[in-house]
Protein: Histidinol-phosphate aminotransferase
Amino acid sequence: MTFPPIREELRGLEPYGAPQLDVPVQLNTNENPYGPSEACVADIAASVAEAARGLHRYPDREHVALRAALADYLARDTPHGIGVEQVWAANGSNEVMLQLLQAFGGPGRSALSFAPTYSMYPEYARDTSTEWVQGRREDDFSLDLDAAAALVREHRPSVVLLPSPNNPTGTALPPEAVTVLCEAAASYEPQGLVVVDEAYGEFRRAGVPSALELLPTHRNLVVTRTMSKAFAAAGLRLGYLAADPAICDAIRVVRLPYHLSAVTQAAALAALRHAPELLGKVDNLRAERDRTVTWLREQGLQVAESDANFVLFGAFADRHAVWQGLLDHGVLVREVGPPGWLRVSIGTPEEMAAFQQALADVLAHVT
Ligand code: PMP
Structure:
């Protein structure tokens, strides 16, 4: 007898997640290494205390105040403005994308992305019984736009997931890529949505525009963001999207009632009031990333171009030995991506110095 009687396609599967090990230098989950200031902590605590007084009531199901604050924040990245009715939030951008697949995927429909990419995408598809179609990236992890558009026209997916910058490679997409794929996905009926996952959007290099600018041009475009990375609030669990209001309305059909707790809404609003401080370290992290790329190349390693707060490097004959060697030095990186590559998140200058020292030592000993 099979117990528990789990869905057949889930039987024996391991839950997704990076190892949570207690080591001195944790550079494995693309977190922001800088915590909030005491002023921000105090503001969050006061806001949560206020929310606690009303916990006998359900929270605002439509989280309007929070959506308005997020719309204001997003408006910095587009000359066209963002309205509150264009914004939707949930518990992390993972939940936002799962809700998108619940509303727009499902049996008889498909979702498509280009590997190597974020390994949760096929899981959203699996969990919503959506067929998963995987295209591929070029050797430098960019997209061949003609081939990508042809694949979309061939499979007619309901949802195309396009991370920019991509995880685990760090590669950002040029605006033409978004345009070409939005047009390809609008060429069949019912048309597909193109979800540009900008979880790492704030870390992009100067001159790379956000896909938010293209929202007025493509009704089938969705841009997702998160407070987990640039906002230094991974523990808050707050992700959000901007899209046509009709797309937000469709998600409202599938979301659980009151999915965002009063505590989450209060804490997120307070964190947003401290946006300049929380985002203040993004420039430092970008500079540290560029220094890390240069240093890794100086060691003779291959390094993917990065517009994110992490860097993919390799290629090692035995990447697990390198990963283990780094761990033995108290440095945790991520064993992810194409065979032979490792991904390091950008930490403080001290953490990156520890990483460099450890890697230099490991490379001297591992052949
Ligand atoms: N998209 C990408 C590309 C990611 O790497 C991550 C987190 N690692 C997420 C989305 C989800 O982030 P969160 O749920 O914390 O918003």
User: Anything to note?
Assistant: The radius of gyration is 21 Å. The first helix runs from residue 38 to 52.
